[in-house]
Design a protein that fits this description.
heterodimer, A: alpha+beta, 4-stranded antiparallel β-sheet, two-stranded antiparallel ribbon, 5 helices, elongated, B: mainly alpha, Rna Polymerase Sigma Factor, Chain: A, Arc Repressor Mutant, subunit A, 2 domains, 74% helix, 0% strand
Chain lengths: 199, 181
């Protein structure tokens, strides 16, 4: 689409430049008009655009389109704030729940810790060693209370044998290690036991 | 009467009434900036609302010493240009959507002006954002150089230089059409 050539009143344009622009721009515009006809055309084009747009915007503003803008903003803020307060309430209840959980865990943990600590202490005060060869399994337990060393001996540690052994009522279970001992003997202190040969 | 700084300070502390006063004081300016670019009441109102909500969310962290009008203008113009370009990409804007212009002149001139303005808007979407922004401020919003410098936070010399190149770009984009005007 082509625009038709239109005649402009140059004095009108100069007046426009002087009226609406700061002095520096006005003088520049005038200087450009004198020196360069293309600039004159450019200025004329933009002046026309500016006036046309301004008129349309002024017409739009006269209808007061923003009259209820605050109401819609307030409604939007209300929705968001109610959402935020809901989330906050939820967060607060989550926090309370979380604090309760932490407290419970602390109580249970503390109890367990001391319980565990007690057993650990016992374990730490003992010396337990487990040895095995083809025919025998030996567990050595060095007690602290009586200063004695106990040796549990299990012969023929074959699973089938072990099953049979489990049926034997004379066997005493060593539950912490999961196997049974046939013989429990009180022997010499551990340092005196020679494990290099037969048990 | 409160100034912007006082209102910002109060609003940042949660004073809803202060925020309402800010909105009432600046809503027309923001809307005007957006409507000038978008030429759609619905879009301009939507984005105006978004801008004020954005301001509200930023209030707690906002520097109360800022020039609020400039900040809002800058945000509005940027949002308007972004939205306009987005719409252009989606080809939602056509010549038919352009506004009736220059009602005081005869119908023939109205059509000419309408086409002229439409060409300008088309060119605006084809030049860089930096230049389109300054053209929006000058040619659409009609701000003087000093106000543009405040809004863009730059010197008046930069405004003049940028405007010169922006106008030249528009002329280049219009090509032969420009010489037919």
């Amino acid at each position: 689409m082509k625009f038709r050539r239109k005649q402009w009143d140059r004095r009108e344009l100069e007046r426009y430049l002087e009226d609406t622009m700061p002095p520096i721009e006005g003088s520049l515009g005038e200087k450009e008009l004198e020196e360069n006809p293309l600039r004159y055309k450019t200025a004329r084009f933009f002046q026309s655009v500016r006036l046309s747009i301004k008129e349309s915007i002024d017409r739009e503003m006269a209808e007061r389109p923003t009259q209820y803008l605050w109401e819609s903003i307030r409604a939007d803020l209300g929705q968001k704030e109610s959402l935020v307060s809901l989330v906050r309430k939820k967060v607060l209840s989550w926090r309370a729940g979380l604090v309760m959980c932490v407290l419970c865990l602390m109580v249970v943990g503390t109890y367990n810790f001391f319980e565990h600590k007690a057993s650990v202490n016992v374990a730490n005060e003992c010396y337990v060693e487990y040895l095995e060869n083809r025919t025998n399994h030996v567990m050595i337990f060095k007690g602290t209370d009586d200063g004695l060393t106990y040796i549990w001996l299990q012969e023929n540690p074959d699973p089938v044998m072990n099953k049979n052994l489990e049926d034997d009522k004379n066997l005493k279970p060593i539950h912490s290690f999961g196997f049974h001992s046939r013989d429990i003997a009180v022997v010499k202190p551990l340092r005196d036991v020679d494990f290099s040969g037969r048990v | 009467m409160f100034n912007d700084k006082e209102l910002l300070l109060r609003a940042s502390k949660g004073d809803r009434e202060a925020f309402r006063m800010i909105v009432e004081a600046h809503k027309d300016r923001v809307y005007r900036a957006l409507f000038g670019v978008l030429r759609s009441r619905e879009d301009a109102l939507d984005i105006s609302q978004d801008i004020f909500l954005k301001l509200y969310q930023r209030l707690p962290k906002m520097d109360t010493g800022i020039h609020l009008a400039s900040w809002l203008y800058r945000v509005a113009v940027n949002a308007g240009i972004d939205q306009y370009r987005k719409r252009r990409r989606e080809k939602k804007v056509s010549l038919d959507e352009s506004l009736p212009l220059a009602s005081k002149v005869d119908p023939k001139s109205q059509i000419e002006n309408k086409e002229l303005v439409e060409r300008f808007y088309q060119a605006l979407s084809q030049i860089g954002k930096k230049h389109s922004r300054i053209l929006v401020l000058r040619e659409i919003q009609g701000l003087d150089y000093d106000s543009i410098a405040k809004v863009l936070n730059c010197s008046m010399g930069t405004v003049m230089s940028r405007l010169y190149y922006a106008r030249r770009k528009v002329v280049n984009v219009l090509g032969d059409d420009f010489y037919e005007i």
